Known about the structure:
Layout: H1 4-43, H2 47-50, H3 52-75, H4 77-97, H5 101-129, H6 134-164, H7 169-172, H8 174-188, H9 203-226, H10 231-253, H11 267-297, H12 302-308, H13 310-330, H14 332-350, H15 359-386, H16 394-429, H17 437-469, H18 472-479
Helix pairs in contact: 1-3, 1-5, 1-6, 1-8, 3-4, 3-5, 3-9, 3-16, 4-5, 4-8, 5-6, 5-16, 6-12, 6-13, 6-15, 9-10, 9-16, 11-15, 11-16, 11-17, 13-14, 13-15, 14-15, 14-17, 16-17
Amino acid sequence: MLSSASRETSRWLVLVLVCLAQFMVILDATIVNVALPSIQHDLGFSQNGLQWVINGYTLFFGGFLLLGGRAADLVGRKRLFLTGVAIFTVASLLDGLAQSGGMLVAARALQGLGAALVSPAALSIITTTFQEGPDRTRALGVWAGIAGGGGAVGLLLGGILTDLLAWEWIFFVNIPIGVAAFLLSLRYVPESRIASRTGGFDLLGATAVTSGLVVLTYAIVKAQDFGWADPRTVGLGALAIGLLGAFWLIESRSDHPLVRLSIFRIRTLSTTNGAMLLIAGALFSMFFFGSIYLQEVLGFSPLESGVAFLPFTAGIMAGAGLSQQLIRRIGIKPVLVTGITLATAGLLYLTGISADGSYATDMLPGIILLSIGMGGVFVPLTLTATTNVGAEDQGLASGIFNTSQQVGGALGLAILSTLATDRTTSYLAGLGGRPSSSQEAAALVEGFQAAFAVGAGLMVAGLVMVLVLLRRRDVAHISGVEPALVAA
Length: 488
């Protein structure tokens, strides 16, 4: 029988292993961006076709997250986690070996499926391994640092591997990580699942929700090409709403639903996921527009752009560490409010970027504010999204939280990209002649400024939701603050 010291060591080893796999997934979400020009040249992608290197991954990741989260509860969290890691690793190998655009997009979609199994299973393993309290706060602080900082590391690593080796290595780098995570998790990660589950699997509900999320994600990523008012966008949106509505109806009448709809009555879960939907849309835009600004306006190389985002990684880790300490002292809601406020200030600072600016004055202060703020947001949001939820629903809660982040990011980026493009186009049209290179840069910056401003507005909307709907007494037990001493 294990001693208490051995059990303690085992718990933190489990955390290291699931965070290693999650780091691989998060890294892959951004590492590809830097290599896109090289991929286009080698595999002969058209400009429109190139976007599917990103969208193929996004489509399956966003579409299968909720199903992956619930399946973890039903078939076993360790089993689904290992399956996801195996699929992701094999898909990474196929990505690197791709000889055509079609093969690469198909392998990227397979990667997205693997990621949709890994992320909710990993988070639910953490929440079932660490009970609510200081230890879970510390564990999820590590998780939040990985989730927030992995994207910035991906930009740097993508530049290094593409410049020094070849674009294939942005995928091959996943293979040793995936193999190590699989073998070690097979031995050390404990299995857990719903013990009292009876009845059959809700195949109809699973089909409806997965189809609805896939169609919704597709509608979002294609809206910029089609136009938001285009009949194709409207039709896809209506189809997605119809499928998700059918899912809701199926679940409300099923004796053994895939998703117990009463889970959405948990105030902490509903409020947190609504806030994450808004906040993720704002955060994703910073990476996207910030990268373009550095390369297209300031003239940075891909590698230099990756280095420029390193302070974001440091800031989010610092913010996550600080938030863990503050949660125990002042409670989760004040930390969350402060984090969103700092992140909003960072985005507002970025609205001041200029075509003839510099990284040190135009970007760095905003990155520092935003990263520290987001470090203070991810920890309390992740804690709140999984609190007041029974052990039998931890996978489901994790799947809902990851879905909110992914769909919110995709939707926010699509809307802000359209806004930025429209602002840039209007600026150029107002010149009345062929623009110079400096005018083209100024037009791009006009669009970026508008996107950052609306992104800050999304942050404020998330802040209002937290202030109005999240009661401090509902989350007081997370930090150990006595409920009697906490106002609503």
